[in-house]
Design brief:
mainly alpha; 5 helices; extended; HARBI1_dom
Length: 107
């Protein structure tokens, strides 16, 4: 569903329709953000790492688990502090990153 453009006059049925669409879209985006906060696998880059069927099954499983958590009052714990305090230079994998990247490009 898309809003009617250009913006219709206030008070018209088209303006009411646009207002409803905006309200619904805001609600959907907020809930999608909460789902992505709970299941970080949904935050990955837009590249599809699985077949479309598997990706859909993963998203459905996350939605079901999210609803179970809501029903049981399980809150989302966002751990931002640990990431900010992490010393990225201690990652042994990081040392070989440039070499691995160059090797991958050669292949």
């Amino acid at each position: 569903m898309t809003p009617i453009l250009p913006e219709p006059p206030a008070g018209s049925p088209e303006a009411d329709y646009n207002a409803s669409i905006r309200t619904i879209r805001s609600s959907v985006e907020m809930r999608h953000g909460k789902l992505k906060n709970r299941f970080r696998c949904l935050l990955k880059d837009p590249t599809l790492h699985y077949s479309p069927v598997s990706a859909g099954q993963i998203a459905n499983a996350c939605a079901v688990l999210h609803n179970i958590c809501i029903d049981n009052n399980v809150t989302v714990e966002i751990v931002v502090e640990e990431m900010d305090n992490q010393n990225y230079e201690e990652n042994p994998r990081e040392e070989n990153f440039q070499n691995d990247l160059a090797e991958g490009r050669r292949i």
